[in-house]
Amino acid sequence: MNIGEASERSGLPSKTIRYYEDIGLIRPERGGNGYRDYAATDIHKLRFLQRSRGLGFSVEECRQLLALYEDKSRASADVKSIAEAKLSEIDRKIRELTELRHTLEHLVHACHGNERPDCPILEELSDSAA
Amino acid sequence: MNIGEASERSGLPSKTIRYYEDIGLIRPERGGNGYRDYAATDIHKLRFLQRSRGLGFSVEECRQLLALYEDKSRASADVKSIAEAKLSEIDRKIRELTELRHTLEHLVHACHGNERPDCPILEELSDSAA
DNA sequence: TATGAACCTTCCCGCAACTGGAAGGTCAAC
DNA sequence: GTTGACCTTCCAGTTGCGGGAAGGTTCATA
After folding, report:
1. For residues B26 and A70, is the Cβ–Cβ distance under 8 A?
2. What pLDDT does B2 receive?
3. Domains plus CATH for chain A?
4. Interatomic CA distance for residues A25 and A43, integer angstroms
5. What residues in chain A have per-residue pLDDT under 70?
6. Nearest residue on chain B to A74, judged by CA atoms?
7. What is the pLDDT of residues B18-35, one digit of tens each?
8. Quick one: chain B helix, strand, coil %, rounded to 5?
9. Residues 1 to 40 of B: which have CB under 8 A from any A CB?
10. Are A122 and B69 in contact (CB under 8 A)?
11. Rounded Cα–Cα distance for residues A29 and A56 (Å)
12. Is the distance from CB of B11 to CB of B47 less than 8 angstroms?
């Protein structure tokens, strides 16, 4: 199957699929005309990539997950530890964003938002220790 | 003052300060030896940038904020609207990450994390509609 | 049979916001 | 005079693609 259909079936843009090939995540066959030819297992991998990227795994993490997926003798603990690391990373990001939210909300509430030039937001950014 | 001291006082790496100059955010004087020479107002701007970047504003947003900061006739409403837009963007990111967290936590809990190869995480990534 | 659209190919540039490193100039101390 | 810590510019790399050029292939239609 050509890349266009692979794109439709996997939910990934053709550009992305070519990129994944570039960085060695997938290796489709080539037809006599030079076109990429995707087999069912390739589509499977592409969908796997689409989902794991959607879950916030980096491409390198996806590479690890894909390797574990193809290694029938791997322990589920190996996969779990990657997922747990990602989980705590997500937690950290949520914490950081929440703090940011508080600070910014405080500033927004303090600002009158009128036609006058005095603005607590700029004052805070400029003067104090945020 | 040289870039090293400007770096210490602003909390920004020298590389970043040079980059901000490259993209036109600051324009320090130059000494006879070609060294950048930072005045107090430059340090002020750099700290402003350091804080607003830390609050999650993009460099382009920082450029706007800096322009508003320097424009004594601007209305505080202009600043407030930028901050409010950023606030809802942060909210959106938090929501997305929270959803992600739920999905991933569900998978992690479902996985035994032992020496056996069966792993619900990989099964989910591979088979179903995440 | 021609031709036009819709595919496909490779290649290279660009994004954000820096970071690292190479090659070289300057300055202050010993 | 020489060491070492500064400073300079420039170039390349990062992440994960997207845009677009220049060209080949395939298929339907006039």
Report:
1. no
2. 97
3. 1-74 (1.10.1660.10), 88-130 (no CATH)
4. 12
5. 128-130
6. B117
7. 999 999 999 999 999 999
8. 65, 5, 30
9. none
10. yes
11. 29
12. yes
